[in-house]
Batch of 2 targets.
Target 1
Amino acid sequence: MVPHLTTSLTGPLHELERLVLARRPEIERWFRARFAEHEVPFYSSVDLRNSGFKLAPVDTNLFPGGFNNLNPDFLPLCIHAAMSAIQKLCPDAQKLVLVPENHTRNLFYLQNVATLKRILEGAGLAVRIGSLIPDLAGPTEVEAAGGERLLLEPLKRRGNRVVLDGFDPCAVLLNNDLSGGVPALLQGLEQRVVPPLIAGWSTRRKTQHFTAYEGVAEDFAELLGIDPWFLNPVFSQCGQVNFAEKAGEDCLAANVEEVLAQVREKYDEHGITAAPFAIVKADAGTYGMGIMTVKGVDDVRNLNRKARNKMSVIKEGQPVTEVIIQEGVYTFEDVDGAVAEPVIYMIDQFVVGGFYRVHDARGKDENLNSPGMEFRPLAFETDCHSPDCAGAPGDPPNRFYTYGVVARLATLAAAVEIEEMAMRIDETASVAARA
Amino acid sequence: MVPHLTTSLTGPLHELERLVLARRPEIERWFRARFAEHEVPFYSSVDLRNSGFKLAPVDTNLFPGGFNNLNPDFLPLCIHAAMSAIQKLCPDAQKLVLVPENHTRNLFYLQNVATLKRILEGAGLAVRIGSLIPDLAGPTEVEAAGGERLLLEPLKRRGNRVVLDGFDPCAVLLNNDLSGGVPALLQGLEQRVVPPLIAGWSTRRKTQHFTAYEGVAEDFAELLGIDPWFLNPVFSQCGQVNFAEKAGEDCLAANVEEVLAQVREKYDEHGITAAPFAIVKADAGTYGMGIMTVKGVDDVRNLNRKARNKMSVIKEGQPVTEVIIQEGVYTFEDVDGAVAEPVIYMIDQFVVGGFYRVHDARGKDENLNSPGMEFRPLAFETDCHSPDCAGAPGDPPNRFYTYGVVARLATLAAAVEIEEMAMRIDETASVAARA
């Protein structure tokens, strides 16, 4: 069943959907040209927020961990898209090692790994799972949420290659976001590693992503003739924050004030009466750790110890020193009265499905991806590529097509972001070499 | 429901399926390399015959006319594959004119056109239908089998372009096999035409296709270490036949004898006790016209007037002068007791679905695609890319994967065939220019 969707505001988003549907051939041509110019990430997932008046990405994950949440009917779509990605990235690959996250106690995550393995096998690769778990003595069988059994094997280094016992892969697919840094085991490999190591959270920054996204959204908004703000959340950065030591509070407060002022101006311009809010997140963060909602400067001054502790470390115990202050986008979509956030999955340039992160206990101005929080995944019933052009804007297939468009903008931005990062790293290296 | 499949012989085909499943990563890598070297046809359909001991293509159609018979659940697969094909062939295309066959009284064919239009629109193109019907006065609405309404518009020439009123397309997609020759309207266009005009039946020959297929099947058989005959039907050609005037009978008889002798030898070699037979078909033929089953030389000598008339003309009233004599492959698959022939559909390099041509009134050694013959299309329930490697050979998803492999071999052969034809035509032109 298609979930029952409600949006409280029926103005500008419907206008955006109407525009997107009407201009579809131009939009698709625009994407074809852009995707031909950039190396699209192997896979990605994009968290969207749909406020009725605005539809924007709030996070773009290059190591997506929820393939298990997709509608199983779309597995063939995933397989086709993976075939296309492999054809482009490593056509000669035949054996592939999949490197997952280390948290083997999350049975849902293991189910994601199992699903991913099935997709890659469907695309015709021999796939084994190479684990980075330091104390994994030998091949270890684990059971995923669906009851499927997975064999985790310790990933080993041999010269400039990583191998498993009796398995020398042509390529390495990371499903580990490298939050804890790039392990020596993976450095300087002669095998193709996708996504590239620099896409991990030890080098990636949300602010760099959203800087790239700003450019992409501006181009796309020009194509449609709309204010890019309808697709793009305002943001700012603070580089020297230390929540534990209460350092950088002024920087944070000034940026929060600036972001809220910009949002208020846009709300006024477009006649939106809601109260602006912002989200403060670790710039290198993931997994919904180190995140808070702020509605005014006071919310970042005088933080109590508990709040400071919550903000001061993220995944893998990494300390937070850089934060992004991002315009909060209300979630006005709900499923059975609970707040719902759409998450779109892509492989290569193809939207392969999506689901709602449905949160019974959360407000429409809160982050819905938090550690330890339960959410109900609700798979999209229809795919994101078949709008019914005769239907009204807001009908599920049409809404999903629009979601797919915005998700592709975010993935395109990730491609630009990674290219720019690679160039910066090359420049730094050549400056260092000259010095 | 997956159709109930039975194969009377359980020997070599299961062996072939077992091999194909076991060597999947190598097979997919092999296809990736081949498809990167050749320009894959925009779309194709391949008629397969599965005799239990042999699985072979018997016809490869580059203007497939049965998209309406595919499982509608696979529409998103078709859309993805079309996006991929457009990205490669005409990335800048935004408006496309689809040129169908002229027979507007076949409501099932019109349903195919409607489905194809939906797929292309799904891939983000603006699509209109440009008809070659000579006496089409103006835009004419017709109703397809599913009740969908289609607007046929007369295709017009403007300089080196074809246009419709108020619609100047970037590309032309032919769903018309040009059996009656290439109309002047389509010659020398500056717009991209796919498939190329030389892929039409006014230049194409089945024997050229099966010559190319022979090479492809030999390479592939070498990869698997099997006799290529298990995938490849023996064939021969007669170039100067005139059934109406009883000319070329000796040539035909000699070739029939030769083909049957070769098949008998292979049957003996592999311990097959069935009686060999051959199919005589117009070399430039299509639509199942001008086809007969022969079990011995006597079957082509002393043809009565009715049989000669039946063989002497094909679609669009074209006379038959060249015939292919092809090894007949028994159909040992049946659905509810009726003979069934699998037809596989591809867009770009992707298998997007298939169906059975189920024929209640036909024998296992007869052609199942005949004009005026009713067949029940039975859509494959599962896709062709998700074998269940734990399942036994012969299980539907596994069989379908093997079908997809053989269909891809035929499509690859079509790519080679069209390339070689283009080279021959270029050479002829340059020889003519020098003379």
Target 2
Amino acid sequence: MTNPVEIKPASGKLGVLLPGIGAVSTTFIAGVEAVKAGIGKPIGSLTQMGSLRLGKRNEQRDSKIKDFVPLYDLENLVFGGWDIFAEYPDCYSAAVNAGVLEQSLLDQLKDQLSEIKSMPAVFNQKYVKNLNPTRIKDVTSHRDAIDALRSDIRNFKETNNLERAVMVWCGSTETFQAPDSDIFENLSSFEKALDNDDPSILPSVLYAYAALQEDVPYANGAPNLSADFPAMYELSHKLKVPIAGKDFKTGQTLMKTILAPGFKARMLGIEGWFSTNILGNRDGEVLDDPESFKTKEVSKLGVLEQILKPEENPDLYGDLYHKVRINYYPPRGDDKEGWDNIDIRGWLNYPMQIKIDFLCKDSILAAPIVLDLALFMDLASRSGKYGIQEWLSFYFKSPTCKPDLYPLHDLFVQKNKLENTLRDLMGEDLITNLGLDYYDE
Amino acid sequence: MTNPVEIKPASGKLGVLLPGIGAVSTTFIAGVEAVKAGIGKPIGSLTQMGSLRLGKRNEQRDSKIKDFVPLYDLENLVFGGWDIFAEYPDCYSAAVNAGVLEQSLLDQLKDQLSEIKSMPAVFNQKYVKNLNPTRIKDVTSHRDAIDALRSDIRNFKETNNLERAVMVWCGSTETFQAPDSDIFENLSSFEKALDNDDPSILPSVLYAYAALQEDVPYANGAPNLSADFPAMYELSHKLKVPIAGKDFKTGQTLMKTILAPGFKARMLGIEGWFSTNILGNRDGEVLDDPESFKTKEVSKLGVLEQILKPEENPDLYGDLYHKVRINYYPPRGDDKEGWDNIDIRGWLNYPMQIKIDFLCKDSILAAPIVLDLALFMDLASRSGKYGIQEWLSFYFKSPTCKPDLYPLHDLFVQKNKLENTLRDLMGEDLITNLGLDYYDE
Amino acid sequence: MTNPVEIKPASGKLGVLLPGIGAVSTTFIAGVEAVKAGIGKPIGSLTQMGSLRLGKRNEQRDSKIKDFVPLYDLENLVFGGWDIFAEYPDCYSAAVNAGVLEQSLLDQLKDQLSEIKSMPAVFNQKYVKNLNPTRIKDVTSHRDAIDALRSDIRNFKETNNLERAVMVWCGSTETFQAPDSDIFENLSSFEKALDNDDPSILPSVLYAYAALQEDVPYANGAPNLSADFPAMYELSHKLKVPIAGKDFKTGQTLMKTILAPGFKARMLGIEGWFSTNILGNRDGEVLDDPESFKTKEVSKLGVLEQILKPEENPDLYGDLYHKVRINYYPPRGDDKEGWDNIDIRGWLNYPMQIKIDFLCKDSILAAPIVLDLALFMDLASRSGKYGIQEWLSFYFKSPTCKPDLYPLHDLFVQKNKLENTLRDLMGEDLITNLGLDYYDE
Amino acid sequence: MTNPVEIKPASGKLGVLLPGIGAVSTTFIAGVEAVKAGIGKPIGSLTQMGSLRLGKRNEQRDSKIKDFVPLYDLENLVFGGWDIFAEYPDCYSAAVNAGVLEQSLLDQLKDQLSEIKSMPAVFNQKYVKNLNPTRIKDVTSHRDAIDALRSDIRNFKETNNLERAVMVWCGSTETFQAPDSDIFENLSSFEKALDNDDPSILPSVLYAYAALQEDVPYANGAPNLSADFPAMYELSHKLKVPIAGKDFKTGQTLMKTILAPGFKARMLGIEGWFSTNILGNRDGEVLDDPESFKTKEVSKLGVLEQILKPEENPDLYGDLYHKVRINYYPPRGDDKEGWDNIDIRGWLNYPMQIKIDFLCKDSILAAPIVLDLALFMDLASRSGKYGIQEWLSFYFKSPTCKPDLYPLHDLFVQKNKLENTLRDLMGEDLITNLGLDYYDE
């Protein structure tokens, strides 16, 4: 047993700032309000419902996570955010428009949700082709945009009398931007590029930069570049603020990082994996643009390679053909359906097939992730952690990690990492599942 | 880093004794012969194809398991076994009859397979209603049966000049026998029951007893009681022989122990899980008998409960309705198909559904398990391990463990346990996935 | 063009009498009320939404069926029925209990539905094991039961000032009763058996008998024997009343009679057809009783044989293995899910597979059938038709037909028959799809 | 009963000419040879295995089609064709390369198949982007190409001493060419365009033209324009030769024209139909080119509209969203898999869903169509029929019909048309399924 880390108390109120008040954000906020009102359960949230084992199996000391580590409770969360639609100026109208939750539930929460107003967003249609904003910030340079966002953050904290705040990106997928330009290499070249209004710097990067400058931990729920490049890592170290990303791991990719480790564990070969999605909401519309799809595709395709390590297992995964398709299909509405065909190979290369049809709801799967990230990022900050929070890989399609490491995509390795990080934080023994001593005589 | 355990060398030849020379056994044996002949790959076998990480992630010291721990290589395995059908007196004819592997492959291995003759089996039709044996041992008491089996084992070792041997049960599912009778409670009452020819003692128990008496590690691939009761644990300690079981984890249950930990990791509720199977081979025929099905059903139903812990998570799993059906369907032939419907619940209890169709091949999935168990059980024996080998839970639907512990069903916990056991055996650091030091400055 | 048949006008009001005011009946009645109130569409109803072609393809004289043949319109329907539950004495409470339609819709129809009271039913628990009635008629003999039902019918017509009435059985599946006893052979032996209270005569038979005696056409929506035996055919001729049956063709069997004719049309072989269902409502509970399941199974298994004619096509269908399973699965609630696996064979016997997952709603599929049968049975009566109405085979899993004919199960043959019967009734040319004259020069 | 048509006898031998000796052609030819050798069954072929009802249902005069109409028998078929690959100069090597049929079967037919040599093809890579021919005719004008093909046809007939011949296009899908140019309007403008080497005239048109000029009936198995425009209809009348097309109806579209008529028959609404395909063979590669895909997409999308008639049924089909995707996926090899999601609507607009997974084999489904078309086109010719043979719509995704008619896509209407055409040809009563007389007293 190691010594526990010193953690500042979760005192006062915690602000949760959300760029993008759409389906995910409103489902998250309305859900928290429903739980507070006693008319909903925070299903899917590890911080609220999860337990972890402490000590030996026969000690039976399992503990709820929220009883084990000091987290803000839901009563002390305050929500804010930015959005591009004047038509839905508050969280209630945006939630109704999103159409994820039942009207009868939203009506019970109308008062609380109507009070949460969204702020005009920093936005550039060039990078999200299929959306038509009706209310954006009138700024003429990157620096102006950053200043406006920082001022929003400060006002939000002041007005709501907040002790602390975190930011979780819940906005749309931007067009693909590789981090290969020099400007992303280090903080000094990046800040010069900011000064020069370099067009490779997309809006989500500006949000991340503004958050760090305000000592606000930043987690990125989309596959956008945002905070995932060396200059931003440098800044997060310099300012001692936690960052994490990227792209919430929900539906089909969640399933992939559950199943692929299973096949790999059993050394089953995989010859092909075909994934198609049908979805009918705004996300589907945005991804119907090939440039936005590319950003998402890169994020979705990456997971198998690290889990399976084809270079180490050429007989099993050397020829894996992996294809991902997303189709805009309006009849599905706010729901989503993922269909996967997986061609696996067993003993002597005999072929088998698996088909998976997942009738899922994206925002329902994403909402608890927003909650957990907000609470854990803040916990990290109070525990003196900063820079990349790799222990939160569990929540992301493309987990950010140190450039000299490979990311961990296996959901169960991610879970083990998260849980052992919490145990380490509190000075508990790490779990290795060895357990030979049970059998000692 | 701990001190490595002292392990006897894998010298000479290892006998692999298989009660039941049917689809699984012949697929296993033919496969090993195919690998030896350079015309097949041992896909699905951790011992042959698996690697594990050693040390830190950035050390890149991943090693093949077979290079890491001292296992017998395939060249030094010798196969033997028992069967009830005079029509298929050797492994070639039995493999042709099983119809799992292509005739053209079997023809290439005809010489090797024809040499492997099966011995007449101990069998009692009362316990496997839908099979009609044509060649069984003429014994009149439990003690006679045990003596005959022990004599078979000794002859087999002598004839083949074997250094060591292991036994892996590959026979049919027997009718259900609960371990609740007093006779299973301890070794003395059990041996008395043996003397009295107690009818609660089924043939697979006699095989296990004979194996242990001959210092042969015993692993049980069916859901039969066999070696899974206190008297047998006592014997395995007394004689210092490893035992493990039970019921090879293949197809649908394998998928269940991959998926359920995934849903649980994300705190997704499960309202219902309906599993149906169609299969057309001898296994399907045997399980068409309700009494054999009961044995299998108990084994199949248990996995979810331990993984999900409904008592700890009543909001998520308190009302889980779990139903498993097996249907004999001749057109499927030697293949098997499992269809699952899973009703899950997310944020605020919103329902989602997952359907999984698994077009699988049972013997193809089971064969590499036989190989791994044979090699690992022998490794355990050479390492001085005995009694229940819980670290091999990875391979079983109903892992045997100490009565005061709960079994571990989560495939990823099982894998972690197996790998850390190997690391411990060789004096390597255990992996906890903490990895905070990568980020130390 | 033949001469049209003389048809009495659809004057006054038509009573629709329903034994069993459960999920199907209430969905049907509430739906008709919703349509009348302008808040719903009668989707699935041929009489309300269907068209048929008249004359040549290039004449473009397609007509709505309801504009072509003289049917009662929805405004002139009056509903009544019998039920066994005192807890749900009217159609509103029964509909709420059934849980098929949304509460918000039912609330809009509360006034109309509350006025429709159900009458105490004739019932015998011996024949429907899993239901526990709370309000049944206190009768001591078959003849008493018939008299009570006839009196109910007369009162219903008088009270509501009805011109005409029809009866459609919407009650539960009774235990299996083969029509092989002598008592079913002719009217005289059957009436003797009625006098003797023969226990082979189940309640649904009494309803049919009572209906015919009151000149009320009778259609049977369950697989019960009810009106499907020679004595009842004789009665329907003697009294000149139409009868039809049996077992509404919805979900999986509907799909089967769509698909099997398709495979047959293309001479594709079928080696196996495995159908499983999961359902969680009262119907599921009733069919969990093996004796009720048998009645349903006989009805479900029959359809393939007639469509495929294995004796004529032994190479294609001689070995067809057809298996149907129904599983009570409460999480599915009022919905139903059917999963089919079909093993087909093409050119040179090469195998292919089809899997069908049908997420359906039984009562939603059955309700429009009740409406169509009520209107068409009455049309038959007004047109002077009586005895078996084979042209309504379209609506049934087990179409009743003359004993010396084989039933027609192919949905498209059934549809052709229904449409040409309507054309014949109105003196229009029958459609043969020959159409050579289009190409004459 | 009408007078039968006079039909010339099926004397001597019938040549079957196939542009494109690839997967479909070789599967067809090898299959016919297998049937002749007694080692295969012509499953899927109506001409070989189908029966049809003659007279009343209770006359039981069902007849095999081949016993009813005078067709060439398989013994008298002679095969020939053109192809673009020098690597596979005969039918055996092409069949091995196609990889559809098992090697062991092909080996048994090697002698027969090796004798069938393919002729160099007329080809233009501009219209089939993803194929790289290695042996094409060296022609410099449309007229040269036609002359070369006509000369091939004459030589083929002479060499093989054939009485008659038919041509069935089995080549690839060409890029999309609408028939909207003036040159397709009538024969005179078309022939002028031929003279001018108009680039809108693609190779498959030249084959059709050559066939007609040689009095060879022409059926088109691809969605190419080929013979489907007014000028070619005019030519087929002028020369009195039958034509038919287009695009063999196999896999997913076959299923669609089975299912959609079923939903329509029951007046079930359809909100969306999403179809995706994965396939790994040459067809998949060709269709990976967007221009070839467009030709196929037009053919695939058309079927629902005619069957459902949204303009007549706006409440049911007015908003139908229909999307078709084809994905090149090499692991599927020569097999194909179609997955469909269908969103249907029932009573009061309640939603239901159907998922269909079809593990099919394209060439296995197409081969018997080639056979039937060859035999029926020749029958048409011997019966004095010419021009568009609409009665063969049954076999096509996009049935050609007179411009002032709408095509018939419903498989069951197509079947009825085909069968009644055969009955009419032989002077039998047409079947209307009325059958009221069975019930006359």
